[in-house]
Amino acid sequence: MEDPFLPAFSAGDERAVAFIFLYGTCCTRRFWNRASRLKKTRGISLKKDQNHILMHLPPIQQQGTMLRRYKRFLADVTLADGTELTVHCPNSGAMRGCSAPGSPVIISKSDNPKRKYAWTLEMVHQNGVWIGVNTSMTNKLVHEAFNNGVIDAFGRVASVQSEIKVSDKSRLDFLLQTEAGPVYVEVKNCSLVEEDKAMFPDAVTARGTKHLHELARLIDKETRAAVLFCVQRADGRCFAPARHIDPVYAETLAEVQKQGVQVLAYRAEVNPEEVRIVSAMEICPEEQLGEKKGTRVNKG
After folding, report:
1. Looking at the domain assignment, is residue 214 inside a domain?
2. Domain Sugar fermentation stimulation protein C-terminal: where (predicted)?
3. Is the separation of the CB atoms in 126 and 101 below 8 Å?
4. Which of 76, 156, 229, 269 is the most buried (most CB within 10 A)?
5. What pTM did the predictor assign?
6. Which DSSP state fits 284?
7. For residue range 13-47, what is the model confidence (pLDDT) as tens digits?
8. Total tally of structural domains belonging to the chain
9. Nearest 5 degrees, angle CA 293-CA 295-CA 300?
């Protein structure tokens, strides 16, 4: 049986090290200033290879086993020596399919002495894959993928602004300035896979539905809008809205797509060494424009 905690080494690791050694001095000051800020504020380090940004987890980690997840933001974990810890769970979703008791987990330790819970749940191992559950990492992954060109659906991106206020009570994750004009982007972390499909949401999300309406409202002749699902696990064949969990969200996604909102999904590679966005995922063919084979979307 494969050990989920055993790091996977390949020739790619050697190439990444060689790249850093030979070309590190050519990296832009802006990139490394950002990397330095991430390391200071979150304990996250970044490494660059020819194709990807690699986001490393905080250096102090522990392997453990999930006992239970509760009160949305807490989880109990047992360590190899039998110690039980209550850790912060930075995920407001239901964590359906990635919180089963007995699952291997990775937790990281913060160096912030003011935190009530020093340890953070980073990833869970289920269905033979590691699943990224720390949703505070998602926008950082996407931001770096914009800068590095891994997310290329918008052409060349000249600048990226975060946390953009679009109404009195709403903010969207990003505003991109591109050669074709501005693009508003809302990012959603996807950790649910069922029937080989990566799905969002894993619980009813009125807030997520509101964001879809905001994106559609912002579209005009010069401005585009998109919702981007960051899939932090490797076992999904394609992406689909979870209409059996939140039919309102699924139907709204179909409606705003018809109005011009781009629907994108990108897969992140997740393992105990690093997390990185690696490739685009297709939208499941039967879910294009929100219609399932043999069914019609109820618009009433």
Report:
1. yes
2. 137-273
3. no
4. 229
5. 0.79
6. P
7. 554 444 444 444 344 344 444 444 444 444 444 44
8. 1
9. 145
